Amino acid sequence: MRGFIKYSTAVAVVVALSLGLSGCGNPLKKSTEVEVSAEGKTLYEAGLQYVEIVNRDIPGVANDHPFSISSDNMRTVLGSIYVTEKVLFNERQSPLFSPAELQILSNTLSTGLARAEPNEDINFVTLGVHQGTLAKERQSDSGRVFISNGKLNIIFGLIHEEYSDKNKYTGQAIDRRVNPLLPGTRRVDSEPAVRVALDNGQSYYVDPETGKERTDWIVIDIPTVLAMAAERDASSQDGLVSPELKEDIARNKQETRNLREDMANIKEVLFDMSEKMDKLQKELESLKK
């Protein structure tokens, strides 16, 4: 289980800033509202990003739809998902979804699950800004969502996949009609390069035919995740701060730690390269003699 992050110092600074700026409006406050379509299968669409109700991809046991979950609880559940990423010689855990992705998915998935029929799933594609090896970069996430046996299932197609409008080798624009950003499917494991770092209430789906875990399919026990989140919130003893603000503080602290680790790794690589360059320089000088 991931350790709980204490926010006391950062919270004090944020609260002071909020009070000091109250007269001219609080720039730290941001809207969590995302406009969701009142009817139809497409719940959200913006460029390549979308959330839509679709027919399930293969026949099988009916989904537990319609299913009721508030957007706040959905945000908590989605915000609990972290991934393990390799950065040079080390591994780090980062939030799967960016704040912007959480805004989109918490509202649309809550509405979609309440609107979906037993033979329907919800597909999504989102683009988020995440910390890369050296700098922040756009990355794409996609998945298929449904409720089965009372648990939230997400089959990922893409997890923190580097996104680009152009081919890095040719410089030509990528035609997304030919190279779409696909969600996951029950049929086959998408085998994402980035894996989910499981926490309490989260597990990989086990294929009953093979007995093997699917690397792209996670099953989430919603009550367990919500209970763990409530316990951590109670332990923080900072109830005056909104969940959104606490989430931002946690993400910023995590990104700072990740950046420090990245810099340490880069220094290690540069030091190693410097030694090799010195050795090569000495070899060249001996050859000249």
What class do helices, strands and sheet pairing give? alpha+beta
> Widest sheet: strand order?
1-2-5-6-7-10-9
Query: Roughly what is the average pLDDT, rounded to an integer?
Result: 79
The percentage helix is: 25-40%
Using DSSP, what is the number of strands? 10
Secondary structure tally, helices: 5
The overall number of domains is: 1
From the alpha carbons, calculate the radius of gyration and give it in angstroms: 22 Å
Largest sheet: 7 strands, antiparallel
Textual characterization of the structure:
- A hairpin with a 2-residue loop joins strand 1 (42-46) and strand 2.
- The chain has helices at 8-20, 71-79, 99-115, 222-236, 243-288, and strands spanning 42-46, 49-55, 82-87, 90-95, 120-131, 136-148, 151-162, 195-197, 202-206, 213-220.
- The longest helix has 46 residues, at 243-288.
- The protein is 35% helix and 27% strand.
- It has one domain (26-230).
- It has 289 residues and is α+β, with helices and mostly antiparallel strands.
- It has a 7-stranded antiparallel beta sheet. A 3-stranded antiparallel beta sheet has the order 4-3-8, with helices on one face.
- The radius of gyration is 22 Å and the shape is globular.
- The protein contains 5 helices and 10 strands.
Write the layout of secondary structure elements.
Elements: H1 8-20, E1 42-46, E2 49-55, H2 71-79, E3 82-87, E4 90-95, H3 99-115, E5 120-131, E6 136-148, E7 151-162, E8 195-197, E9 202-206, E10 213-220, H4 222-236, H5 243-288
Antiparallel strand pairs: 1-2, 2-5, 3-4, 3-8, 5-6, 6-7, 7-10, 9-10
